[in-house]
Amino acid sequence: KFYANGTSAYAAIADTYNKVRISNSLFDEPHTYKVWCEGSEVIQHNPEFKYWKGKVDLCMTSCPYFNREIYSDDPTQSSIKFPAYHLWREGFLRPTIATAWEWLKRDRYLLWNIADLKMSDNTFLPLEQDSIDIAKSLGFIYQEKIAMELRSMPGANRVSEDGTLTAKN
Question: Which of 8, 74, 86, 103 has its CA 20 to 30 A from that of 38?
Answer without folding.
Answer: 86
